[in-house]
Amino acid sequence: MFSKEKTVVACTVEKCRLCGMETKRKFQEGDFLFTETSKCNSCNGILIIEKIFGETLNNISTS
Amino acid sequence: MNYTNIDFDQLFGSNDQTNPVMMLIWIVPIIIFVFYGQRIQLQITSGELKKGIKKLEEYKIESRNELIGYVKKNMNPKDDPTKKIDRFLDYFTIMPVNMDPNGIVTKVRHIVRARENYSREHVRSLSPDTSNLELTKIQTLLEIATSLQMIYKVVNHLFLTAKKQNNYPLILPLQMMMPFIMEEAEAMHKAIPAFKMGQPIGDGIGPMVIGKMMLGTKKESIAFQTVFSETEYAGRRLFLLKAEGPDAVVGRPGDAVQSIISKNKLDAIIMVDASLKMEGEESATISQGFGAAIGGIGTERFQIEDIATKYEIPIFAIVIKQSIKEAITLMTKEIADKADEIRAQIYEMIQDNTKFGQSILLIGVGNTMGVNQ
Predict the structure, then answer these.
(1) Count of domains for chain A
(2) What is the ipTM of this complex?
(3) Does B107 touch chain A (CB under 8 A)?
(4) What is the pLDDT of residues B90-99, one digit of tens each?
């Protein structure tokens, strides 16, 4: 029998307040929405955490 | 073989020469089912329920162990906290008598708040230096473990009583309710990792929307674990209200609205909250409506409705539909992606329902864990 197991990966999306560029990375403990994280690589603006969410990866495993 | 010449009279023994063996084969099961039918059904149903109860027991044990492990790792208590935590898990709340419902809301509020204050102070007593964020996370984990323990105890009690009395009808309501109970228990069990990591949950969409609107404004504490700020939009004065993030709290919006109305005139209240979707409804859909969109035991809703009625303030609601599991586990991408659309709908609602120079209160209702402002 095959059963679908859903694995959820937490992601953090950072957005530059100046140029609006968005980058997605894996969630790290201590990430909170709307906190400033670092400087933008492209325009030197400030990145803030725009979204934190879980994305599903479908792993098919035998049982 | 030829199947066309079967003699049914002979097969079922219904001719004159009745076959006694066939008669027994027919009659014995009928007698067994007449006298022992319910017991047989009880045995079959018991097997299914036992599996569910075993799962509930696993959830109960795992949530307790996760809580103890988390407290030991993050609070560094001087003594072993196991005994104290086991005592917390057994706490119960006796709701006020409702024979005379007059004034019951204030009584319920008093009891619920006393319980919250008590558990907060006792969790803090394990290690007084613990931050508010850790404290609220542990308090929520404690609530989850307590709820799972209570669900297991009640379900097991109903099951054992039915078995003890050999009473099949008594087990039927439990059998009918079991899938719903399991869905809720599973959701609570799956919520534990998100609370341990401090990640926003589906219920946090309201605070997420209002929290972003609060960026760059002067925030002040207006009620216990509740923040407030002011901004402007299209010539209207906007009051923004949410629980104080990133702690795992829902705040006290009722008290906050009371405090705001004592100093300001409000022309409209808009509440943004997560709402349970119906079966067949799509997740993360946005709906607009009227009335106070706020869950919980009902005391906060009562307080807000009371103020709105007294001052004749219309209450508008924007809800984001989700399942129970989505509401208390890590926020899904579909829900998070709706934040900008909700904000656009709020502005549209303000334009459509208020006039230039009026004041509007926007409340982001829900657990604000992982959501700053």
Answers:
(1) 1
(2) 0.86
(3) no
(4) 888 899 999 9
